[in-house]
Amino acid sequence: MKFRDIIICLLCLSGIFACEVNTMFNARNYFKSAQARPLTSNGRPNAQAIDEYTKAIKKCGKIISTDKKGKRVEEAYYLMAKSLYYKGNSAFQAKDQFQNLVIRFPDSKYVPEAYIYIAKILRETNQPKEAEKLLDEFLRNPKYRKHHPEALFVLADFAIKDKDFIKAQHYLERIITEFPKTKEYREAYFLFGKNYYEQKDYDKSLEAFKKMQKARGIDKTIKLEGTYYIGLNELELGQAEKALKTAKGLIKSESRPDKIPFVRLLKARAQFALGDTTEARTEIEFITKNYPRTEGSAGAYYYLAEYYYYNLGDIPKAVLNYNRVRTEFSGSPLAQTAQEKAVALGFVAPRTGLDCETGLSQFLDYHYQAAESFLNVLSLPDSAIAHYQLVISPKDTLIVRRDSLQTAINRNNAILDSLRALLPPPEILAIDSLGLLEQAELPVTQTDITSESAFADTLSETIISSPDSLQTFADTLQITELELPVADSLFVAETISEGDTLATEEEKTKDKGLPDSSLAEEKKELSPPLTETTEPDSLTLVIAQRIQDLEKENARYNQRLEKLEEIIERFESEIIPFCMFAMGSIYHNRSPESPENNEIMAKMQEEYPENKFTKALYALQNNLPVRLIDPKEEREEQLLDMYFEQIYTAPDSALAGLQELTNSPYHKIKLAANYRLGWYYGFEQIDTLLAKPYLKAVLDEPEAGEYAVVARRFFDGNKFLLRGSFPVVIPQTDTTVVDSTGVDIEESIKEWSFPAPAEIYETLPDSLKIYSGIPMLMDSLVKAVSPPEDTTEEKNTSPEMETADDNIPTPENNPVPALPEELIPEKKEELPLE
């Protein structure tokens, strides 16, 4: 090769080398330029930055495709992965390139930072546990100790975002104590103050940030962030004027577009606090107009809603602006809180037409939801207490309504008694109480109708007056009735008996000298025969109609009275105690030593001493475990535990007590008692006839849960599911027992095996083993149902038993635990054959 060719080759190689060097140089410059550009208002890189990141990625890709090894390739992988990460829309691609760097160049100086970036990407892609695990392993590797402060700083930031302030404090303290001369040491000041702010410890946070401002070597951007948090702490501490001054100074210094909305929002909040609402709303409008669809504009809508509700009480406008927060920027940390407050305001909005008598459920739902919303969402405990008091207050009104109804019923009953006394006897007017008004009308003249109508009107006026007036009216009729002609009297049927009428006419006849036959015909004309019925006159119909109306009215009153009694009883036993417990809880959380707290406790102990809410509030105020349970249910639970313990020491009383508890109104008690009795008779006394009804009661319960699951392993609802090879002892001396079908039970017992209780016990859930009774009786039970160990020993059996299975134990060679006499069945003919 000629010298000239060699020179040309060298020049070409140097050109290629220079080209590669220029490529890496350009990639670095593109990345650096993109990093220097400010983020947009939503925290993302602007269009120029994205373009420069893309150019850097292309330059790095060109180097990677040309060379397979070398320092430039390592840097190209690292620079490409960071460009993809900061570009904002290529997180998974960035993760792949960081992992390629770790795999291909495990000893590269860029590997430690690659691990930290991978952890950040895992966190951003909803894998927080994997990110934390990766960094924990990173911190345990002494090879990367130089980068441990950076990893600790990232972990502290993760913890603050998760509201785990104790863990964040731990990581920050490690940076401050173990790495005092690092860049992260200075940055830890910022997170240290931010951590206190997130914990709502504003005094310590303000102190930490002021101390950071005086420290040397801290970047300008971090100091600006610290100044912003100083303003936030001043605002939270009620120092609105200082916060406004801080915000105005920060507006002049801050030039980053993504931070300006937050600074202006701080200014607007301070102005709202100072009452300068016009300027504050101007700032809000500026933010929402110039920085739309950003976290800053979402915050502006949130605090505008706060102003509408807490300052003006304008619920519709507050709800409108709360709902705008999520639509403006769904990733805002205030979005969820705003949504909860919008829903809560829907619950607390005033409602009309609520009446605890006609709609108790709607009345309680509204006030309970409103109180919960005020307490837990809107942070207005006094308003919550006011709603609980509104729930309690209708009780007196209900009592007044009940007493008024009872008075009206009593008045109606008195009127009814007086009216019924005016009606003719049933033997004179054969009319029943239900069909009185269906009787035929009397054939009367127009004159009679007019006079009777006037009389009926007078009586109607008397009816609606007091019973005394009505009685006076009746007495007047009785005094004057003898002076009225019989044919014209309206009350002849009720005031003059048949005997008296006949006697009077007979005296008149004697005076006139009339014969007896004429007297008979006269009596026939004047008085109806006893065998016939007299139709009611119109006055009687009026009285009957009024009686019927009063009886219907009383029926309505009684129905309403019964409903009122139920509601008042519920107020006494449940509603008022619950509301007082809720108010007592609020007072206790606010100030345990407050007089209101002591007053409400004393009132509950005086008026509702045995109520579960009284006991719960007492436990709360004395720092005891709070348990809302009916005292009667609690007593039955204690009895249940006692019977479980006594079933071996005093079985008679324990079984009788458990039998009573099978009728308990409490589902859990009833279920446990039935299950325990079923297990006792099925496995410990081996009497399936006695066990069946209890186990069947367990299976018939719709919500038996684990009890039913375990019971079905050995009982299907009708018969036992027999497993294993354990024979059953028949405690009787007869050599042959025949059941009602003629089957030899002793012969058939050879084919009958019993469930293995030890095997079943091992499969029981821990929550049910306490009810099984097996732990204390397992050994004796297994012995009772197992074959004797020594089969060579001579058995004491009668000749008739020689045909039986040799392995069947008898009372002599394998005694069973003694049963109470009343529990031993007299006959075994009823033993079920499986």
UniProtKB/TrEMBL annotation:
As given in the record, the signal peptide range reads 1-18
Keyword Cell division attributed: no
The record's annotation in InterPro entries points to:
TPR-like_helical_dom_sf, TPR_rpt
Region labeled Disordered — which residues? Answer: 501-534, 786-834
Q: Does the keyword Coiled coil apply?
A: yes
User: Which stretches are annotated as coiled coil?
Assistant: 547-574
UniProt feature, compositional bias: Basic and acidic residues? 505-526, 824-834
Please give the start and end residues of each transmembrane region. Answer: none
The stretches annotated as TPR repeats are: 186-219
* Record keywords, A-Z: Coiled coil, Signal, TPR repeat
- Quote the PROSITE patterns the UniProt record gives: PROKAR_LIPOPROTEIN, TPR
* The name this protein goes by in its record: Uncharacterized protein
